[in-house]
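Lecture notes, part 5. Sequence design as translation. It can be helpful to think of inverse folding as translation between two languages: the language of shapes and the language of residues. The source text, in structure tokens, appears below.
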């Protein structure tokens, strides 16, 4: 299938290019010394990760440790409430540790082990990436440092406890807004000091090349499974698929299974409290081209052209940019990017919990909210939503801020 002169039959062979670009987005904007570390990781990825030994080991881990494949579930009661459109969810909440993050963390940690590294370093917002990497580090016997903003530490106390129980060193970041951007800044600074013995396991499809590609490839198992499962369940492809987008790892993995199909794809960004700068984190909707954290993409900027303050009820989505591949697909028009507010998200959180017995992560509830909104505009058909994580981590915060509805 071709879309705006891009051939999706050969898409994954051509994007990113050898320098890590998806069109004009991506690349590697780091110091010469750190670029040596990026080149080492790139070389290792293209040799080790393509070997049958590595692939076989990762498949075994996914089956025996992660519990993959995760199922696709039909939302019968919610669909009945909406009318003739049928809603389905890909259940990444049932992946070990409760979210999609372990898919790339086990791959990155396995790569670190093959490279002879002793430590993994990462940032986390909602804490799911931190928990997943701490889990992977425990599995492979690696040291683990997790950088997390002070605001997110308070919001995500259950995940902080899980990381510590798993043996990770959780480093509190208090600079700036003390959320995800600042955690990334601190983790990058630490990696610059320790790259000879450590590997930075980026938590999304962001950062310098090869990370947007690597994380996408490790997460593509979600889209591959979902496509096969949906065809098996219904005999056809969904009319539309939906995923939330912050940095965009769950979405990119999910979308990758359907890019070459006649399926409408929606990426959902957090509108938060509204469209004013500082009240949301919808970079693709309201941002412009810019470089941060070692890559070129679309980002939200302040009056000085620096990364702008952002906000979302979901700690895992409050990032002022998005993965370069999302920026590329946005410009192509292959993926439609839209927004959902905090209020719509919380409504969907309770609807899915009460009507289907599934408590979603607040991040995932953005996708559920948009899937519901989309279904109301359709007369018939089916929508497959990526339920990227479960909501255990959000219980205390939801009850404190919104109560029990």
């Amino acid at each position: 299938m071709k879309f705006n002169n891009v051939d999706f039959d050969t898409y994954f062979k051509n994007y990113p290019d050898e320098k890590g670009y998806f069109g004009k987005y991506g690349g590697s904007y780091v110091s010469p010394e750190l670029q040596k570390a990026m080149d080492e990781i790139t070389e290792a990825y293209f040799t080790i990760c393509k070997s049958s030994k590595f692939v076989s080991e990762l498949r075994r881990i996914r089956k025996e440790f992660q519990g993959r494949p995760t199922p696709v579930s039909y939302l019968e009661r919610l669909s009945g409430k909406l009318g003739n459109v049928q809603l389905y969810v890909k259940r990444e909440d049932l992946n070990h540790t409760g979210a999609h993050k372990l898919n790339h963390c086990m791959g990155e940690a396995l790569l670190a082990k093959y490279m002879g590294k002793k430590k993994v370093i990462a940032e986390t917002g909602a804490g799911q990436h931190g928990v997943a990497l701490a889990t992977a580090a425990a599995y492979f016997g690696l040291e683990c440092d997790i950088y997390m903003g002070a605001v997110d530490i308070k919001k995500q106390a259950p995940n902080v406890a899980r990381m510590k129980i798993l043996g990770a060193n959780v480093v509190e970041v208090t600079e700036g807004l003390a959320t995800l951007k600042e955690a990334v800044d601190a983790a990058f600074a630490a990696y610059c000091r320790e790259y000879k013995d450590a590997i930075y396991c980026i938590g999304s499809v962001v950062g310098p090349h090869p990370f947007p590609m690597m994380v996408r490839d490790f997460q593509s198992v979600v889209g591959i499974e979902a496509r096969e499962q949906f065809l098996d369940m219904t005999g056809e492809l969904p009319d539309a698929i939906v995923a939330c987008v912050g940095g965009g790892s769950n979405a990119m993995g999910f979308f990758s299974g359907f890019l070459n199909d006649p399926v409408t794809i929606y990426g959902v960004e957090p509108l938060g409290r509204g469209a004013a700068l500082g009240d949301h984190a919808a970079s693709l909707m309201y941002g412009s081209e810019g470089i941060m954290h070692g890559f070129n993409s679309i980002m939200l900027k302040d009056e000085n052209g620096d990364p702008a303050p952002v906000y979302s009820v979901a700690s895992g989505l409050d990032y002022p940019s998005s993965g370069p591949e999302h920026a590329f697909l946005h410009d192509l028009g292959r993926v439609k990017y839209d927004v959902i507010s905090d209020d719509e998200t919380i409504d969907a959180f309770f609807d899915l919990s009460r009507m289907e017995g599934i408590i979603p992560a607040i991040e995932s509830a953005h996708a559920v909210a948009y899937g519901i909104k989309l279904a109301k505009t359709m007369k018939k058909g089916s929508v497959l939503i990526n339920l990227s994580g479960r909501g255990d981590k959000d219980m205390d915060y939801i009850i404190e801020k919104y109560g029990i509805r």
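The translated text above is only one of many valid answers, since several sequences can fold into similar shapes. The first strand starts at residue 2 and ends at 3.
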